[in-house]
Design a protein that fits this description.
The structure is a single chain. With 121 residues, this protein is mostly helical. It has seven helices and no strands. It has helices spanning 2-16, 20-36, 40-56, 60-77, 84-97, 99-107, 110-119. Helix 1 runs antiparallel to helix 2 (20-36) and helix 4 packs parallel to helix 6.
Length: 121
């Protein structure tokens, strides 16, 4: 699980630096590891990172969908994402512009959200 956490953190650093391809690679690898080890919070973090990557790439509907899921999952897990502002600045505008996708994302199951996240890009 520490490898998944390190990959998520690396993704955040890369995202913040504008290195979108590197961020995506780190988040994808982190998602796979956290999913395989049932680390729910890390799944939420890496999905949120991938939502932010989608927003950076102009994939607004995909970003809104994944952000909707991440916020609902965060609520279900009863925790708050650290470094939330890193994600919100990218994702709140796309969610506001695509409310149907955002609401659909809030209703997704975790299996579907992971499948969507890993199938894109």
């Amino acid at each position: 699980m520490s490898a998944a956490s390190a990959l998520h953190s690396l993704g955040d650093v890369e995202l913040d630096a504008g290195e979108i391809d590197a961020a995506e690679a780190a988040y994808r690898d982190g998602l796979q590891l956290s999913w395989d080890s049932n680390a729910d919070r890390l799944v939420c973090y890496t999905l949120t990172g991938l939502a932010a990557v989608a927003a950076e790439r102009g994939e607004d509907e995909r970003a809104a969908l994944l952000w909707g899921f991440a916020e609902a999952y965060e609520e279900r897990l009863r925790f708050t994402l650290r470094w939330r502002s890193l994600y919100e600045q990218r994702l709140e505008p796309v969610a506001a512009g695509h409310p149907e996708q955002y609401e659909t994302g809030r209703r997704l199951g975790v299996d579907s959200a992971v499948e969507i996240a890993l199938s894109g890009g």
